[in-house]
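Friendly challenge for the regulars: who can give me the structure tokens for this chain first? No prize, just bragging rights.
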Amino acid sequence: MNEPRSRRLTWVAVVLAASVIFGFGGAVMGAGTAYVVLRNQDASPAAALPAAPSAAPAITTNVNIETAVTQAVDNVGPAVVTVVNHMQPQSGFFGTSVTPTASGSGVIIDTSGLVVTNNHVVEGNASLEVVLASGQTLKAELVGSDPFADIAVLRVQGPLPAAATWGNSDNLQPGESVIAIGSPLGDFKNTVTVGVVSATGRSIDTDSGFRMEDMIQTDAAINHGNSGGPLVNLAGQVIGINTLVVRGAGTSGDVAEGLGFAVSSNTAKAVASQLVQKGYVTRPYLGIRWAAITPQVAQANGLSVDHGIYLTEVVGGGPAADAGLRQGDILTALAGVPLDQDHPFINELLRHQPGETLQVTYDRNGHTEQAEVRLGERPQA
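First reply, four minutes later:
Bragging rights claimed.
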């Protein structure tokens, strides 16, 4: 049987060394010594071949995540579009007319031509276009939009490459990996950013006195132009519609990064379904114009309540007017829920349905009153 190469080299080295030092006799002696040493090595447990290291996993965790991300992007990416809003003409310098444009993102939810985006992406439009991932531009028409959920649905004509699948946002867990796809700044089409779900069930106050609820917070990079694009899980499902990013904390001067927010997919899907079916979302209506009262406003105006809704106008023939409410009244509670910083008026109103009768509490000239109001349906603009 042939000896391993390493053993043959060891044998030769010993013999040569002995012959150089001791002559022929030394060579014979060296050969014998080498034989004994090598035989002992064979017999020694320490000379046994080392155990093979345990096999590494075929795919590590990092590779799993990277593979899932690339697969999710491959699935959803073709369904992501850029939405171009050609806005109403405005007067420019020297009497010229200027047609400003704005852009955002969207996602195809049905290959028949339905695209979901944000309401604020399409506000004030004169015409709309959709740019596919391939670069092809298609004309789009507005099916309907809802400012409260900040969701809009567009319809485009022509063959579409793919449609995304809705996921269940109720199953999201903080720390779960997510992917944002969109067109930041309108120029970098189908940009992919990766992060995690930072939190669920977040609430964000808006300038209109409405608090957007059940929002998904993520640290995946979201920039201007990403609005309306999908937030995707590793299964390649749309679990949110990216809506806004918070950069600072108001007057405090603090600057933050990684505070992106998305409308949950369950909300977006329900709203989009109504928009497709009816062109609008059914919302309750009181028939009032109002201004919010805060402790500062109350103190400055000598009001008897610290929180509530001051009725600046009561529409004749509307639900509030029929219930006996009038201008100057201050609503302080709806269905027993106080209207304060934790319970914005619009949010509490939207918890009810048109046709529902509920009790309202209001202040009139420093006296607390109550009335039963039958809610109407919010007129469509």
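The chain has a mean pLDDT of 83. The longest strand covers residues 191-205. Your move, everyone else.
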